[in-house]
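Working notes for the structural subgroup meeting. M.R. asked for a predicted model of this chain before we commit to crystallization trials. I am recording the input and output together here so anyone reviewing the notebook later can reproduce the run.

Input as submitted:
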Amino acid sequence: MIRNRVPLPKANSEEMFINKGNPNDLSGLDLEQLAQRYVEIDAQSQLLKGLILLEARNRFESDREFGAWVQSTQALCLGGGQPARTRYMNLARFFKDRDMTGISLTAAYEISRPDNADIAEEIYIYALNKNLQVAEIKQKIELVKTSSISQDENTENESNIAKNSVNDKQKEHIKRIRKIVNLLNSFELEPNEKIELLEESIRNIKNELSETSAVSENIENADQ
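Returned structure, recorded in token form:
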């Protein structure tokens, strides 16, 4: 089912179209400028294709319906097929409101990949205006991901150490109760006296356990 159109944010027209004036008049450009214009137009065309596909997808209720529409539209089935369309959409989704100066199209594809979504902004800031090689972008992505994993592992290890410490305290309290019972049994006391002493000891241990449980609860809340 086709749903009502929800417009995507519109990019600035000067950012989306490089050519101003007569787009066919290239005689004033030197060879380096011509090569640069070619690269810029290529990047813009793929970004615009992605924006078009995102707008079309936004008009359908499901990916299945959108896919059926694409397959029914001959022009959209050309030029790289579904993998290319997916790259265009990923590119447009991330870069539709961002400057691509100094970021090659291939590098932009790496940054906008869905599996890099949680670090994409950091990589984008790192790459902007720097004309870095794609290999450098990939290396930075791996470095940031590795660093993030290491931080998560350190946090988990610290949490496990704290939890183990709490469990050790609980085990120690159980041992203490057993020792108290054995000790009371060795005394020549009336049963009521033994019970009173045991109850007092248990109350003291419960107070310590409540403090330990509070620490454990704080740790679990911090992990969530």
